[in-house]
Amino acid sequence: xxxxxxxxxxxxxxxxxxxxxxxxxxxxxxxxxxxxxxxxxxxxxxxxxxxxxxxxxxxxxxxxxxxxxxxxxxxxxxxxxxxxxxxxxxxxxxxxxxxxxxxxxxxxxxxxxxxxxxxxxxxxxxxxxxxxxxxxxxxxxxxxxxxxxxxxxxxxxxxxxxxxxxxxxxxxxxxxxxxxxxxxxxxxxxxxxxxxxxxxxxxxxxxxxxxxxxxxxxxxxxxxxxxxxxxxxxxxxxxxxxxxxxxxxxxxxxxxxxxxxxxxxxxxxxxxxxxxxxxxxxxxxxxxxxxxxxxxxxxxxxxxxxxxxxxxxxxxxxxxxxxxxxxxxxxxxxxxxxxxxxxxxxxxxxxxxxxxxxxxxxxxxxxxxxxxxxxxxxxxxxxxxxxxxxxxxxxxxxxxxxxxxxxxxxxxxxxxxxxxxxxxxxxxxxxxxxxxxxxxxxxxxxxxxxxxxxxxxxxxxxxxxxxxxxxxxxxxxxxxxxxxxxxxxxxxxxxxxxxxxxxxxxxxxxxxxxxxxxxxxxxxxxxxxxxxxxxxxxxxxxxxxxxxxxxxxxxxxxxxxxxxxxxxxxxxxxxxxxxxxxxxxxxxxxxxxxxxxxxxxxxxxxxxxxxxxxxxxxxxxxxxxxxxxxxxxxxx
Length: 636
What we know:
The protein has 11 helices and 32 strands. By secondary structure, the protein is of the alpha+beta class. The strands form 9 sheets. Strands 23, 24, 25, 26, 29, 31 and 32 form a 7-stranded mixed β-sheet that branches. A 6-stranded antiparallel β-sheet has the order 16-17-13-12-11-22, with no helix packed on it. Helix 4 packs antiparallel against helix 5. The protein starts with a strand and ends in an 8-residue tail after the last strand.
């Protein structure tokens, strides 16, 4: 629109998105007006009737009679009435309509709409468009969850799946976006259909209409990932799609490609429309709304209520006494931090994964496996832990995690010769095998052999998923005050030995460095243990009849400006914990929790469960859980 009138561009597209025109005048000099808006007529930009000039629709304000005139030639090409040497066509490899030489191979030859019996395809197009229009009208303007009907996605958590948000927001100088993936239908994004026809539409999340479903970098090829994106100042640039009759969704300009998902993964990609194994067939939209909309709204309401409970839990968990104990001991036990439903969802997922595991058996669940499924990451992301850590470290925004380290301890673990009991001497050997995380080793070639570097962080957060009410049940054990004692050790000895060999002053040197007896961290499901990185710890043998279930997360605060070794917090353990200054430890800023932008583009969305062995018998650090400040899209 401008002061002179209004119009829009034209391009070649799907038959289902075809515009219908009304001829006004005789074949040798007539206007072609849009059936749905008869003020608009086919026009040539600026009436420059030369090769290369684009075609569009236009209405000169107040002058409907100024419509451009055309003639239908005998060969069914369409020329401006004043220059029959040119006609409508397209440049090779393009879709935009423009004038071409009438002898050109790029001229468009149309079906003859003047015939007494119009081509049958006209009626077929009208019927298909009417069907889609009726479907859109039946929605009554309601947003639509894109619910996945096929494939079954049985590798994902939940019984039914849909397109959901992935991670937190990101931004750069060009715009901002959010990741998308396949996930539980309860978390489905509700999309508004932007466009009058399902053959040419943008799909915008109803909670943020500037964003639209996007094909990353507009690479229209198999394997290209997807996200949501907003080009700063240009929401109209949103990628457009066509809803196909088989309920697949294609980029408007590429009918051979559709939205799909790769086996064993959550991320969305373009796949071949013929790839029946990976292409997504969506549930018919009216059915998806009728069956799922209330369920999705109820889920969102429950989550909002949970957020309020979480704020209360976080506020009560950390007081001046708790902070002083954390300072003194280097770790703290926080009971009842994670809600029962969240714990049960994680247990269900772990047991499902163990039942479905065909590689590694139970051994990979002994701190060697870090899935990124929501039931695992929700233990951190959907609990009070981010608010507590935010407060203690003094972060501007609450951290999040992209994966969690499953750490199960089975009966007999760390007991001698496959037994389920342990002697005092055997326990002494385990006790003196303590560690801190991040030292280099040969455990996994090209992963843990980062010789010359120590990969330290700020906070270790453990979530207990099973009752551990007796010692020697595979529980976490921590040496009180060891964070100060090890800092003193490194002050004297330096970091050369741990960097070069991964060696710590454990074993026979333990009692000369660590002066306190270890504390056995007993607790109940939902209890959380938070420890300073420098706190020496180990896992007790499990002589109980039960599996010890726990998940570990590791957090780097904003003071970590790179992924490499930061020696300062290994000499001054609380230097990064800005909230530990004074007894109040800072206030929780809950306005920073949730959809905070983390500055990372979707192009870095690889979320891999890479394993890293750290210094001892217990801990393997996966790169994918070592994120800071919500950086769950950027692997180390």
